[in-house]
Design a protein that fits this description.
- This is Muconolactone isomerase domain-containing protein.
- InterPro entries: Dimeric_a/b-barrel (IPR011008), MLI_dom (IPR026029).
- There is one protein chain.
- The protein is of the alpha+beta class.
- The chain has one domain: 2-Layer Sandwich (Alpha-Beta Plaits).
- It is built from three helices and two strands; from the N terminus they run H-E-E-H-H.
- It has a two-stranded antiparallel ribbon.
- Strand 1 and strand 2 form a beta hairpin.
- The longest helix is centred in the C-terminal third of the chain and has 8 residues.
- The chain starts with a helix and ends with a helix.
Length: 68
């Protein structure tokens, strides 16, 4: 299954089903090759995909660096 391959490669980091909807949510780590990764999915011709870029929140960055 292509999704499992992408997870094993570290391209697809997390994947959730949205309860009550025919929808999923994924966290991907391939900003420069995202379109290529999405196109490799067998479901791609039938999927309506929205991409929302994320950035690290300052609070999270401070916690990870050990600063308060």
């Amino acid at each position: 299954m292509r999704g499992r391959e992408l997870m094993a490669e570290g391209v697809l980091r997390h994947f959730w089903r949205l309860p009550g909807k025919r929808a999923d949510l994924g966290i991907w780590t391939v900003a420069d090759a995202l379109e290529e990764a999405l196109e490799s999915l067998p479901v791609r011709p039938y999927a309506d995909i929205d991409v929302t870029p994320l950035a690290t929140h300052p609070m999270t960055a401070r916690v990870r660096s050990g600063r308060n």
